[in-house]
């Protein structure tokens, strides 16, 4: 880690979160000389995804880096008269109130006897790797990028194939150990990330286990006097952790609007070739006064199917959605309500309260008080995304977790020559006293690196540039034993739990093995809500905060249910096997004290999609290089091959093997398809289809009735 | 710059295409000749299979080549196992052709041919293929037909096919092919126990709900409405004898049926006087081979008493009986609402009433949606055409404006309902019909009116008195004043017609009237205020009847 | 969210009037260049192509533009030993081209140029037990072939006098292909398709068996084929196409419901589908023209009373004068 970097870069980026990574990719792509550092030992910052052991560790530590200041840097030597130095805070910690719990009981001895083998199988390779990365963790991390530079192309090709094949297996073959290690493409970078993180994981394992012992203490007693069961209700603690590597738990779970900026960017830049996606297959909500999740009819097909609305409601809903799809053309419809609450507008359109609920909370995903204009735009945004990939789906989510996204863009950056440095801490920013423009940074090794532009993620801000921490998002993550609303096929669900009484609104994303977020038979449930109190120091029991969400979705924790000993009440609902709670912090920027040419990327925030982050990256790019194109297509000839590759992954979620093969998708859900196919650079496909409709039909009669 | 993919100009492409085509043509001709060589030498070998592949791969309509391949499999002396292998590889080849042209008759038939040749055809695989191609295009009727072929040969349970259509309809209900398939499957799987319905009522009601969901979700999709009409509407009306006319001097018996029949069927009809069958001959009322009205001349005179005619047409026995003590008498079968629409159980009526109400709501939401309006009419017709008539009339009027392209259809539809309602209520035995001011554009169901002596069609919108008028043997007075009549070629050889009134119509030329001179008893024709009235008087002088102009 | 009506909109540069002369030159020059790609590629349906072109020119009062002798000898050269006709010499014969051959010869009043009895035997040999017809010896069954058989026999005058086929079963099969919408498909169970409707209605009309049809129901389905552009499609939710202006319109004419569509807008659709440069008519405005669509466009206009066109017979799609000369009377419903 301590080896010497070049003296100067065009741009230095600190933090490998999504906006920084996109920016890094965009800059390298057009030939800027980029240094991208992260004090963490993993990629993604607040956007990262972790396996479950690492997550336990993360939760158990109050601070991520007790980075020693053992060898204090001699600043005097580095900073000249006309320069000022802004010290960065020692900690980039932006999580608070972290807790994680495992509700599973330890394996009694009589079981151990029967299956000792498996844990070892998994354990084995780790130890090996740990030992050898103890020798030279540094090299791996730093040599990685250079290596990439040398043979980026071939590197690319080969690993893409491996990568892809691997994933396909991983879908059906669940016993494959460490499949998640294969998640990001570039093996060089790859090795670096997971050696580093694995290194962490092992400590984590030790801490965690001791941790858990405490956590479970309360349960132990109860389990002690449980009747000796041949088939316990839930897997044992050890069994659960066997597949620890196959969990990918997001710090900041989000979904992509199929027509959101991120998707367009992934296609345009062809970064999608590094990624795979799944459709969000359903939208659920709870109607006020009810305690049962029910599907929200979002698309034409959903509405047709829905059993929860009357035929007349169906029509009114469809009429309304059709209006929203291109409301600009019908100002007379909404003029009067422009600035009034969206709900008033919905009422004026005779939408039943139920349908209003669907639109406000699950389709527009706004609140009753949102202005009509905002509501209309939100609804339209949803409808635009609908049907692009699968007639009744509007959202995509990346397989292996959101953490894949920053990595994919970082990889693009590396492929185009960006230099990457993990576990490299920048201790401060050097700026010109008079012009106040940034001149460079000084890292913990005492090296001074020059740059024209500096990009920071919020959490790396120097203290004096912060306007103070506040809680931005309260999070809960649950691992459960079944879906919150089981169905024949595995679903990926987006759930909105509107505010009830003094409980807040929750947004929930549930996914499982299908998205490679968990091993088979487990589901991961991400819940987000706005913190009840934003003061960073206040003590809040997040379990309390999420109480009503938990009551709606779950039967209870595994431990509770063991005691309750399968009472029939909520047999349908899943049990919580593992849970984690934390707040994500955000600090405002104090622009006055911020040097020029320094750009701050904000934290993931509460937003469900990625547009905010994308905008930030794009805007910053346009400032740094005004006349350049933002992430144009990569030039390699073999792109053509990749192209339809990217494609497949694009459409991974829907059963169709190739999106071209949706001639009628137009009426599947609606006008988009044609346009779509063109975007996918297959304009002639649509043509071909039309032809078939015409010709096909008459050639038939053609030969026929030459009467 | 930055390696954006270069797009060719269409001009370049065209030139390229032309060049490509020239070379293509050369090759094409070479292959074709090679092919016909094979044929003339009657060589059916792998070589020939390869040659034909080259053409068929791109042009799968070249039927002679498919035939050649068929011959190869048929004639080949090769061992069975080898043939089996050839056939299997043919399936692969056909599939690749279908990918290029999924609507090729040749390909699909070749596949049927091969499947039937195979000793152990893998029908499951074929069904998979259908699923694939229907996923690609769920309206490809070739593939649908092939699917039915596969199902019938593999005894694939029809119930599964219903589930398949469910699946398709759920993912996209504007899929006419799927609805069509249901209309074939349901009567098979859920046959109707009672009379009237097409499918078991329980299922019928389910279907009504399903299709209602479809057209409420999207009222602009035709498929659902057509299917709904089918669920409502009756099949073909049952055959029945509508009327029997007996005259004793001369002894003739004239019988009119709902549906036209052929002579051989008619000769089977039995005539009984007071229970005893009497012999005689049936004659069609006119030259056409199918007729509704037939006249029976008995060998002996008909006396008074009970007269009955019974005949059996396509398995349906129908009969009519009447008392005769006079010289002449007409007996008409009683008509009810059920004469013109399906009888509905209370359960069904309840559902229809509910649907009517939700459609009314829908109509308020979208007053200009023609499908909703038309379906309102169909529902009312099915529930009670008499009670709702005035409302139906208004709705049809509005349709003529909303959907002007088809206004004539709506007018004709109204005319039909108007006449039907009149028939239901009228006393046909009185033999006088007053159909004035009905706003009708056509006169349908004439078979019910055969017995008439007086018919008044004045103040309507008739455009022509066509061949349908040939069926009135006893019609003495026909009034059709104040219509839009331009043609009267149907008024030929009406045996009993005495007075004809066609005032205020659009008859333009004297030639149009020529047919009238073939009516033997016609005495007076009134043509006031027609364009023709203004013609020189002497144009009309050689007509055998008195003209009022 | 809703159904988008599949239809076309006219550009401004569409032709206004009926371009009779350009069509004459298009057809009369078509196939002059024996090396033309399109021409060579359509060898497998040449005989039908000739029927399309010849009928078009006759309707346009320009039959003499074609070399009668050449055509007749070509037709003769297409009759195979089986008695049927192939699209071109050396190809296999089928009932499709057998009808085309007979139509061409009837128009030229030259039936005796071929062995009619052999052709009749061939047609009769293709009927199955259930009354259906195969297209050729290989056994593909389709109502199109029923029409070809019935029409051919009517044209050669063998339908009513010693008829070689079982017309009763023939009718029964056709009726067994009727659907919930009153229309017809290729085989029992097949979805309704305008082309097939034309064939079945035509066959029943020639056989005077139209009473099997629910004219109001079928007429409704047919008139719903008309789209806002005025053009007609072949099935619900499909694009309009000039050839359907014929198959739908003529079917409507036979069941006496032609007034159920807006003929004016249909005319303008066909007019708009003309190509002023090359002549000829395409499937829809702006597309490439071909003889097939040219015939059905012209035929449609003739049926709608376009002036200076010969009157067309809706069932045979041949000039009415030919049908009169053969003293064939088809059944046409009036209400």
TrEMBL record, chain A:
Gene3D superfamilies per UniProt: FAD/NAD(P)-binding domain, Guanine Nucleotide Dissociation Inhibitor, domain 1, Guanine Nucleotide Dissociation Inhibitor, domain 2
Location relative to the cell: Cytoplasm
Region described as Disordered: spans on this chain: 165-203, 644-707
Biased composition, class Acidic residues, residue ranges: 671-684
SUPFAM superfamilies in the record: FAD-linked reductases, C-terminal domain, FAD/NAD(P)-binding domain
PANTHER family: CHM, RAB ESCORT PROTEIN 1 (PTHR11787:SF4), RAB GDP-DISSOCIATION INHIBITOR (PTHR11787)
Family: Belongs to the Rab GDI family.
Protein name: Rab proteins geranylgeranyltransferase component A
Organism whose genome encodes this protein: Clavelina lepadiformis (Light-bulb sea squirt)
Automatic annotation (TrEMBL), chain B:
Family: Belongs to the protein prenyltransferase subunit alpha family.
Matching SUPFAM superfamilies: L domain-like (SSF52058), Protein prenylyltransferase (SSF48439)
Chain's role: Catalyzes the transfer of a geranyl-geranyl moiety from geranyl-geranyl pyrophosphate to cysteines occuring in specific C-terminal amino acid sequences.
Catalytic activity: geranylgeranyl diphosphate + L-cysteinyl-[protein] = S-geranylgeranyl-L-cysteinyl-[protein] + diphosphate
InterPro entries per record: Leu-rich_rpt, Leu-rich_rpt_typical-subtyp, LRR_dom_sf, Prenyl_trans_a
Pfam families noted in UniProt: PPTA
EC code(s) of this entry: 2.5.1.60
UniProt keyword annotations, A-Z: Leucine-rich repeat, Prenyltransferase, Repeat, Transferase
Protein name, UniProt field: Geranylgeranyl transferase type-2 subunit alpha
From TrEMBL, chain C:
Organism: Clavelina lepadiformis (Light-bulb sea squirt)
Residue ranges annotated for the Prenyltransferase alpha-alpha toroid domain, each copy included: 18-318
EC number(s) from the headed UniProt entry: 2.5.1.60
Family: Belongs to the protein prenyltransferase subunit beta family.
Keyword Translocase among UniProt keywords: no
Record protein name field: Geranylgeranyl transferase type-2 subunit beta
Cofactor list: Zn(2+)
Highest taxon of the lineage: Eukaryota
Keywords: Metal-binding, Prenyltransferase, Repeat, Transferase, Zinc
